[in-house]
Design brief:
single chain; alpha+beta; Pseudouridine synthase; Archaeosine Trna-guanine Transglycosylase, Chain: A, domain 4; 10-stranded mixed β-sheet; 20 strands
């Protein structure tokens, strides 16, 4: 039995604290069709039910104007996958990395969600908007424009653990209702501040008097829109996010991004026998780069697959406690907890079907 620690990549930031997995289900039955079209329905319905087991990550370069849920539904349809979800909402006005988990990869979503996120965003000065982004209505304005020196002097106040009030248009629940639903209905929404972690906030450039571009690296639950709003208030100029791009989530970065156009082309080529769906997928274990890996024997692997604990023995037995990923003969087997000399399985993987094999993509 041997222990190996996988590569650690310190990256990360999070625009919205959404539930970790958004499951996309099959569409409901369509309304009744004219009799002339009903003869084709059995074949169409059979095609919709013909889903396949697909396991891995799609690191989608989400375009501006698309919701995260819509992006997941497109990817799920392209792969004809049985299960799909995303690891952190990206607003429609934002672009960049949207990690989409297919099949057994959905079991690893928390390891991505809990990681740091990295964003590049543009703050537009002179107005505050009700949504804290370009989609909102102007609620106040200012003629003041900050200097680069004034912005730089303020940044230390936004580093470390800070108190942040989420935007009114956010997924925070207020008495069981989403804040954005209440705000859209015209109701007054008062959200309490909460602590968030800002690991890094740097001024990249000030292209003109009205805009400033920042890089932010922050923890789970941080709203970048609120950063721009609060910077504008303290600078006296007011502000909102006019551009936002996510560059990294946990161990996942821009080196692996793929656009919808590229993904569609790969899937269509695979359908004609010119390639493999696995070429468009990152492996399930991509999300587990930041936790230790433990290799076990085939005998121990069989016990773990049955949900039975394994006693750790010998010089190579790990002396730490916590979560590990388990492999057998080089294949991912399970997520387990090491506790008091025992290996206790928590999530067992069934990777029968199409499995991701893709590596970093050129051009990113």
């Amino acid at each position: 039995m041997s222990v190996a620690r996988t590569k650690h990549i310190t990256v990360g930031t999070s625009e919205a604290a959404e539930p970790p997995i958004v499951e996309i289900s099959s569409p409901e039955m369509a309304p009744l069709e004219p009799e002339s079209q009903q003869q084709s329905r059995p074949r169409q319905q059979q095609k919709k039910r013909d889903k396949r087991d697909v396991h891995g990550w799609v690191l989608l370069d989400k375009p501006v104007g698309m919701t995260s849920t819509h992006a997941v539904s497109i990817v799920k349809r392209l792969f004809s996958a049985k299960r799909a979800g995303h690891a952190g909402t990206l607003d429609p006005l934002a672009s960049g990395l949207l990690p989409i988990a297919l099949g057994e990869a959905t079991k690893t979503v928390p390891f991505v969600m809990d990681g740091r996120k990295v964003y590049r965003f543009t703050a537009c000065w002179g107005e505050e908007r009700d949504s804290d982004d370009a989609d909102g209505k102007v609620v106040s304005a200012s003629d003041i424009r900050p200097t680069a020196e004034a912005i730089q002097a303020l940044l230390p106040r936004f580093t470390g653990t800070i108190e942040q009030v989420p935007p009114r248009f956010s997924a925070i629940k207020v008495e069981g209702e989403r804040a954005y639903d209440l705000a859209r209905a015209g109701e007054s929404v008062e959200l309490a501040s909460r602590p968030v972690e800002i690991h890094r906030l740097t001024l990249v450039e000030t292209p003109d008097a009205h805009h400033a571009i920042f890089d932010a690296e922050c923890g789970k639950g941080t709203y970048v829109r609120a950063l721009a709003r609060d910077l504008g208030r303290l600078l006296g100029c007011l502000g909102y996010v006019s551009g936002l791009r996510r560059r990294a989530v946990g161990p996942l970065g821009e080196d692996h991004l793929i656009s919808l156009e590229q993904l569609s082309s790969l899937c269509h080529r695979a359908a004609t026998g010119e390639g493999s769906l696995a070429d468009a997928l990152m492996p399930v274990e991509t999300a587990l780069d930041d936790i230790p890996a433990l290799a076990v024997s085939q005998a121990d692997a069989a016990r773990l697959q049955r949900g039975q604990a394994v006693l750790l023995r010998g010089r190579d037995a790990p002396i730490f406690r916590g979560t590990v990923s388990i492999t057998a003969s080089g294949q991912l087997l399970a997520l387990a907890e090491v506790d008091r000399g025992e290996l206790i399985p928590k999530r067992v993987f069934n990777l029968t079907g199409v499995r991701g094999t893709a590596g970093p993509r050129k051009g990113h």
